[in-house]
Write a sequence for this structure.
């Protein structure tokens, strides 16, 4: 009988889990609006820079390929 009291049932385990989740959520420190705006600007800037780099690399490789092959023509006899 002492063994049965020592074991928690499934509902008390679920309740304990959700209580600990709520306790952890209360510990979260949310960033301010200015921090979020600054981080958003940095992310957009990095996306634009990487996009321009990939675009330039693609155009450069296309120009290099066009020196070797003529991509616009097809050989039809």
């Amino acid at each position: 009988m002492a063994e049965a009291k020592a074991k928690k049932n499934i509902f008390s385990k679920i309740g304990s889990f959700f209580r600990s989740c709520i306790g952890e959520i209360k510990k979260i420190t949310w960033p301010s609006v200015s921090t979020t705006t600054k981080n958003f600007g940095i992310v957009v800037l990095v996306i634009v820079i990487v996009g321009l780099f990939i675009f330039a690399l693609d155009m450069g490789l296309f120009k290099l390929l066009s020196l070797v092959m003529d991509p616009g023509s097809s050989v039809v006899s």
Observations:
- The two ends are 94 Å apart (CA to CA).
- Residues 2-68 form one domain.
